[in-house]
Amino acid sequence: MLKRFISYYKPHKKLFIIDMICAFLIASIDLSVPMLSRYALNDLLPKNQFRTFFLFILMLLGLYLIRSVFQYIVDFWGHILGVRMEYDMRRDLFKHLQSLSFRFYDKTRTGHIMSRMVNDLNEITELAHHGPEDLFLSLIMLIGAFFAMLFMEWRLALAVYIFIPFLVWFAIKQRTKMSRGFKNVKKKIANVNAQLESSISGIRVSKSFANEEHEMEKFTFGNKEFRASKDVAYKNMAIFSVGMGFITKILNLVVIGFGGFLIMKGTMDIMDLLAFIMYVNAFLQPIRRLSNFVQQFESGMTGFERFTELMEIEPLIKDKLGAVDLKNVTGNIDFNNVTFSYNDHEKVLNNINLNINAGRTLALVGPSGGGKTTLCHLIPRFYEVDEGMITIDGKNIKDIKVKSLRSNIGLVSQDVFLFAGTIKDNIMYGDISASEERLIEAAKNAEIHDFIMGLPDGYDTNVGERGIRLSGGQKQRISIARVFLKNPPILILDEATSALDNETEIKIQRALEKLSKGRTSLVIAHRLSTIKNADEIVVITEEGIKEKGTHEQLLASEGIYEKLYKAQFKGYIPDQI
Ligand code: ADP
Ligand code: MG
What we know:
The chain is 64% helix and 10% strand. By secondary structure, the protein is of the alpha/beta class.
């Protein structure tokens, strides 16, 4: 993990080196000031060299000015370095999230991802900047002050060193506690975010059930847990600060007491003690500094750990070595003994054999839960088949580049998702480089052009978050226009007309028929009247494929399809088929 963290410094080597050099110079100045002061007080003053003494003080002032410049560089550019690294990490995480497959999103809550993207990475800036700089600066200061004290008065120095193991023990112990605490805080805030995301996306539902209070309760539960986790973390942080502060105060007392004793005995003079005390503080400063930033450090590091956890999840579906592009697709699709399950204990598809000839339409019908949607999702490799294989024009889809495979398939499903943005943006999603003419042609084909032109802003109308201002049928037609623009040789229509009223359905049906012309199509429809003309109809239930044939053949065979069809014709659908 540390290796990964360090790798983020690499693109910003220059900033890092400047930061480190300035930190080094600051430490050098801080270490030399006590020595210089001691020299001035000891050697210049007694010789009545006031002029030199005054010049000396001016020189110190100059030194402090220079130090301020270095400090500015460290504080400003150092943080800039952190910001750059945070930016890079967020970019990489987003890219990685784009690559993860359906299985990952099936089991991950959006809020948890948001939390990592926003909260966890937020503190990385501090860690990235202060981590190495503090370590480096503190180390130099510690070593420098250590030898300076030893050199000045070894007895007094030893008295100070006795405290070090104690300090270190306390710091490590308390630090571990804090680390655990802040990790817990991160988990809890992720839960709060997840709940927030769910409640806000479902706000219309909770309002329709007048369940706002229930939502409040659910939210409060997580919020309280978050509060409790912070209580613990801050308690440990306070114990840490207080403990460190107390130990250093005692240390100062010891130095003054023991130093005073040495002065009385005549083995040390008062100027030495003054300089020594300055060194003790130069020695304690890095320790205090570390203690101040331990919290940031812990937060940042746990944040980075959580970032790494996500980054290490392998995308399940990716190009295999030697994967090829799909060229000149005719669109012959074959399922050979395909078996698939979402989990270990239940097979959704078992030994499925299907063939859709290029340019033909195959309709899938059957009870809900029979695996129709699942079957559709296997063709663009949203999920990987467990056994058997699917081929397009004789090529195993696993040997085709994912991007190439998916760009040849158009999918229209029941729940349409529109991105925040304009209608134009949403249709153009089918082909981002399409011309205005093609955009309009696609909209016309999808029978949505007239509606769009009737809007005050036309194609530039904002659809609002989740396209809430459009009706189901309008959204559906926008999604169909999107696929017209994409113009793929293979088409999958998964209950594209199910949730619509009759009039819209006729319009959409017309658009879909136009769309499937000349393409290999796989159509799932609830209403059987819409698939009568399919070249082949396949009845699929939880037990697998039950019937195959044309509408007329299936009616004649008096099986499941015939029962279903008659039932719909009469206006009711039986529970059992
Ligand atoms: P259909 O489209 O015919 O109604 P589905 O393919 O949606 O059927 O579902 C088939 C079975 O797989 C159902 O039992 C459903 O609960 C299950 N299922 C569907 N999607 C998932 C998923 N993402 N994770 C786990 N199980 C799923
Ligand atoms: Mg379905």
